[in-house]
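Design a sequence for this backbone.
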């Protein structure tokens, strides 16, 4: 099940970058650069108290930021 508080940043087939809410059919923002899309995803995730995830060109998660209650807090 999609967590609608999470926002993904990923490259589109046309080479542009998108910020997309998890489970949404369309991007919330399309930009020319990865940095712009990543900034937008982090802002939206912070507002929703969710998580921002950055997918690299290879499709692997490169970075993630959690806002609000962390589901896996560090021990110690």
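Sequence:
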């Amino acid at each position: 099940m999609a967590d609608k508080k999470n926002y993904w940043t990923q490259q589109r087939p046309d080479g542009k970058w998108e910020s997309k809410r998890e489970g949404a059919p369309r991007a919330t923002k399309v930009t020319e650069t990865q940095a712009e899309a990543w900034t937008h995803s982090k802002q939206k995730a912070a507002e929703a108290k969710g998580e921002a995830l950055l997918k690299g060109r290879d499709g692997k998660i490169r970075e993630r930021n959690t806002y609000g209650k962390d589901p896996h807090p560090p021990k110690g």
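The longest helix spans residues 34-48.
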